[in-house]
């Protein structure tokens, strides 16, 4: 609890001391953490993997963007973002989630490929050029124009996500989910409605991603299909796996660690004397190696490994 | 209507590529229960190697060498992936295929690659079709027939099938299950490499083409529950022909969407079937 309060105070105070570029990183890390907490729940608690989590991020972003471009109050757009993303997840998940194994992984991956190609071809969504001129988020007459305000918006968003997720983990469905991640047959035999709980956590993870996407749309003011590549979905998997599956802190720590690491690598790769392909090669290599190394040698991720050390 | 035979042939040709990628998935999944995400990367490695080798080697030899390299890559991926349990192995192979991006961009750059295939074109119906499509079909079908013979008639093939149906019993009678897993990955690598080598002359390939290949390959394999090579072939051909027809009579931009949508529908249909049968283990 002390750690939690300390983390909350530090992250609340932090934006005041950051300059423009660092604020941008703060916002991106917070948004990534919101998505990763959901994915970590899905992978750790429900034992399912989504390779298309960025598509829910995209759906949330486009929902908020399209609604506010067409004159809806931006706040309503932001509220609609998680709802629409969750609805998409419910439709796809309803059928596929009853299957075990890796069906959801490929269904979500296919969903993202379809979504990207549809977005790129739809004039109503701005096509390949993207959606431009998204207004800033405003509540009542108060407009969020400064980056630091978005930093606090992201902080609040992540807080909401964590509170909801925490309550889910501690509730009866949460215990049922953990049982089902260990042994589906035993959970089903003990009366856990396996399919329904799985669908619920998948939908919830999509809602988290959708909310993050909504904030992203107002923060950037521009959306294009290129902002949501398949690699982004894989990045979320890396973050969740590195942080530690199924733990809330793991999602946050993993996301922040990877965002900072990628930032450092970008600095390194764009320094003078490096070839033009260095940034992409370095980030691919690091994502790939991290996934393999963590799964093989640190299968529970950073956060549980650190906690285990504390106890012994 | 007279365009139809042409569309069918190009569709079957593309479908053969998906079927080969899918059968690589099946070969690995049957024996190890691992869904190998790096299967698409094998195809990319095979295609890129072929493009490089063909600058020095004659046709035939260059392609074969590329398939051999893909098989070795498959073996290496298998050695890493089988160090963990099948569920985590998907994430490991995902990591390896992202790592492969780094290597591919370093070695071959990030521009699309292609090389010359069988030259010329034939007239089928009213449409001119590149004769290379016929070569693709002509190579793929014997490969599937050969695989069927290998799995049912040879000692090694039977050992692989034994691991597939009951690993414990296979171990008891002295089959080295781990080594069979590695062999399965090498076979998967070769099949993936063959897909890349065959399809590249008619469809350029980039380092990140593996995502489309693996999703389509998975779609082909899923029809047979990831365990039946013959159904995978049928699934791949169905997928390829559907795409060609959508591109020919509808909008080329939507060809992949339709095929992927079809895959999701098939998965939901299979889920519904399982639902009516109850949650029993799939008899694989």
TrEMBL record, chain A:
Origin superkingdom: Bacteria
Record keywords: Cell membrane, Membrane, Transmembrane, Transmembrane helix
One term under GO cellular component: plasma membrane
Annotated transmembrane regions: 23-42, 54-73, 79-97, 104-130, 150-169, 200-224, 236-261, 281-299
GO molecular function: branched-chain amino acid transmembrane transporter activity
Broad class of where this protein is predominantly found: membrane
Pfam families registered for this protein in UniProt: BPD_transp_2
Topology relative to the membrane: Multi-pass membrane protein
Compartments, as annotated in UniProt: Cell membrane
The keyword Hydrolase appears for this protein: no
Protein name: Branched-chain amino acid transport system permease protein
Organism: Actinophytocola algeriensis
Lineage per the UniProt record: Bacteria, Bacillati, Actinomycetota, Actinomycetes, Pseudonocardiales
Automatic annotation (TrEMBL), chain B:
InterPro entries listed in its UniProt record: ABC_transp_permease, BCAA_transport_permease
Main location: membrane
Cellular component GO terms, alphabetical: plasma membrane
Statement: the UniProt record of this protein carries the keyword Transport: yes
UniProt keyword annotations, A-Z: Amino-acid transport, Cell membrane, Membrane, Transmembrane, Transmembrane helix, Transport
Ranges that cross the membrane: 6-29, 41-58, 64-82, 89-109, 129-151, 180-199
Membrane topology: Multi-pass membrane protein
GO biological process: amino acid transport
GO MF terms held by the record: transmembrane transporter activity
Subcellular locations according to the entry: Cell membrane
Family according to the record: Belongs to the binding-protein-dependent transport system permease family. LivHM subfamily.
Official protein name in the record: Branched-chain amino acid transport system permease protein
Source organism per UniProt: Actinophytocola algeriensis
Species classification: Bacteria, Bacillati, Actinomycetota, Actinomycetes, Pseudonocardiales
């Amino acid at each position: 609890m002390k750690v939690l309060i300390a983390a909350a105070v530090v992250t609340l105070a932090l934006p005041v001391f950051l300059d423009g570029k660092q604020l941008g990183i703060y916002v991106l890390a917070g948004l990534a953490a919101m998505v990763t907490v959901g994915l970590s729940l899905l992978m750790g608690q429900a034992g399912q993997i989504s390779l298309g989590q960025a598509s829910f991020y995209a759906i949330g972003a486009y929902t908020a963007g399209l609604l506010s471009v067409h004159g809806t109050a931006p706040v309503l757009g932001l509220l609609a973002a998680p709802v629409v993303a969750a609805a998409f997840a419910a439709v796809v998940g309803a059928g596929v989630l009853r299957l075990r194994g890796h069906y959801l992984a490929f269904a979500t991956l296919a969903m993202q490929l379809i979504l990207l190609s549809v977005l790129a071809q739809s004039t109503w969504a701005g096509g390949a050029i993207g959606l431009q001129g998204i207004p800033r988020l405003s509540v009542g007459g108060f407009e969020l124009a400064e980056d630091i305000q978005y930093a606090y918006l992201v902080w609040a968003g992540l807080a909401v996500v964590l509170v909801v997720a925490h309550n889910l983990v501690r509730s009866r469905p949460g215990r049922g989910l953990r049982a089902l991640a260990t042994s589906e047959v035993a959970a089903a035999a003990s009366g856990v409605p396996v399919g329904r709980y799985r669908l619920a956590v998948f939908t919830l993870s999509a809602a988290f991603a959708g909310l993050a996407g909504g904030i992203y749309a107002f923060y950037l003011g521009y959306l294009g299909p290129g902002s949501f590549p398949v690699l982004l979905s894989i990045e979320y998997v890396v973050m969740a796996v590195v942080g530690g599956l199924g733990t809330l802190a793991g999602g946050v720590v993993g996301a922040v660690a990877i965002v900072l690491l990628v930032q450092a690598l970008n600095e390194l790769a764009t320094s003078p004397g490096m070839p033009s392909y260095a940034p992409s090669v370095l980030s691919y290599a690091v994502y790939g190696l991290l996934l393999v190394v963590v799964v093989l040698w640190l299968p529970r991720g950073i956060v549980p490994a650190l906690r285990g050390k504390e106890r012994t | 209507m007279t365009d139809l035979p042409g569309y069918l042939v190009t569709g079957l040709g593309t479908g053969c590529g998906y079927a080969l990628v899918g059968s690589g998935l099946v070969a690995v999944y049957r024996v190890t229960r691992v869904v190998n995400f790096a299967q698409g990367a094998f195809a990319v490695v095979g295609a890129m190697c072929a493009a490089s080798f063909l600058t020095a080697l004659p046709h035939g030899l260059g392609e074969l060498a590329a398939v051999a390299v893909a098989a070795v890559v498959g073996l290496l991926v298998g050695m890493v992936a089988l160090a963990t349990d099948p569920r985590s192995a998907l994430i490991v192979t995902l990591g390896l295929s992202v790592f492969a991006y780094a290597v591919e961009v370093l070695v071959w750059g990030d521009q699309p690659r292609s090389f010359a295939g069988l030259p010329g074109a034939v007239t089928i119906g009213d449409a001119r079709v590149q004769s290379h499509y016929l070569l693709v079909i002509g190579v793929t079908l014997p490969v599937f027939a050969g695989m069927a013979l290998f799995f049912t008639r040879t000692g090694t093939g039977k050992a692989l099938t034994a691991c597939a149906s009951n690993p414990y019993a296979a171990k008891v009678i002295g089959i080295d299950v781990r080594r069979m897993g590695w062999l399965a990955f090498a076979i998967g690598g070769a099949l993936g490499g063959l897909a890349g080598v065959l399809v590249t002359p008619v469809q350029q390939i980039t380092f990140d083409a593996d995502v489309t290949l693996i999703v389509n390959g998975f779609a082909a394999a899923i029809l047979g529950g990831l365990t039946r090579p013959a159904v995978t072939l049928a699934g791949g051909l169905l997928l390829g022909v559907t795409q060609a027809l959508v591109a020919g009579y509808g909008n080329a931009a939507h060809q992949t969407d339709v095929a992927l949508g079809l895959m999701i529908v098939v998965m939901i249909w299979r889920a519904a079937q399982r639902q009516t049968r109850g949650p029993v283990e799939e008899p694989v």
